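Most newcomers find our protein records easier to grasp once they have seen one. A record pairs a protein's sequence with a compact description of its fold. An example says more than a description, so a record of this kind follows:
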Amino acid sequence: MTLRDVSVRAPRFGEVAVEIRAAGVCHSDLHVVNGDWPEDRPLVLGHEAAGVVTEVGEGVDLDPGDHVVLSWFAPCGRCESCAAGRAWLCTGTRAVENGLPDGDTAFVSKGEQVWPFLGLGAFTSHVVVPRTAAVKVSRDLPFDVAALLGCAITTGIGAAVNTARVRPGESAVVVGCGGVGLATVMGLRLAGAGRIVAVDLSEDRRRAARQLGATDTLDGSSVDVVAWCREHLGGADYAFEAVGSPRLIAQLPSMVRSGGAAVLVGMPKVGARVPIDAFDLADQGKRILGCNYGSSVAAVDVPRIASLYLSGRLPLDLLVGAHRPITEFEEAFRDLENGVGLRTILIP
C-alpha cells in the first residue's frame, strides 16, 4: 500500500466526475490490504465517500455543484434482481470486479491503468463513477456524515430495518461495534427494538453504543455472550455479527431463541468456513440471513436516512471519528486493524 499520483480521464456517457471531500476507512479496504480479498491488479482503494459533482457525461441528470454520496454497489438496472427492486443483489454490476460498467477504469498512473476498488477508488481527490453510483443529497448534509452513508450507515441500518425486519419490542444482540455495528444499533432503535445488546472489546465503542440506543453493553473478552443471552433474554430474537469473524459467526445461532435469526453483516475473508449445528437450526426453526449492503437500494435509502439525520432523528455524526489527511492513511488503517476509535475520515 503506497501513496502515488494518478490521473483521471473525463466522464463518458452515463458517467459523473466527482471531487472527493471525505472518505471513510472501512474494513473492506483492510481485507484487500491484508490479502483476504485477492486482487492481482493495482487498485485505488476507498469505497465510502462523498463529494461534489464537477462534470457530467452525456445522458446524466446531475449538474456540476451537486453534492453526492458515492454508492459502492452500482446496480445495472437491467437484471432480474434490479427489475424486482432488489438492487443489492444485482447480477449485472461490474463494481465487484473493481471496474466501471464497461469493464474499464478512469485511472492511470505512470502510464499504467489502475483500477477503482468496488468501482469507486475514493482514496484520491477526483474520481469518475457511473451515474448509478452517485446519489444526490442535500447540501446541508456534512461531507463526513455523507461519506459514511456510502457504506457503513446504510449497511448497518439496513441490516436491522431491511434484512432482519425487526419489529417493535423484539430483542437483538450486535457483536462488533465498529462503524457498521454502531449503525446496526441505530437501526434497531429506529425499528423500535426492546433490548439492544452491544458487544465489543473497546470501552469507547461500548460507550458510543449506549449513546446510540443500546440498552445493555458487554465486554466480549470477559463475558460469555451466549450464556448471557440465554440467561437474560431467553435467547435474542436476532443476533447480528458486524466483524466478519468466522469464530464469532459460529456463535450467533446459539445466541438466538427458537425461531430467531442470525444476521451476517460483517464481511469475512474469501473462502471463510463456519461450523454450524444443523440439527439445532432445523429443530428450533432458527434462520441464518446474509446481509449485503443492508439489503438497501442506495438511490432510495440513502436520501431517506439523510433526511432522518437532518430532521434530528438519527445522530449519525456520533459515528464519525478522527479526521486525517489522506497522507496519514497508514495510521488510519492501523487504528482500524487495532479496533481503535470510531470511523476515521480521510480528507484528500
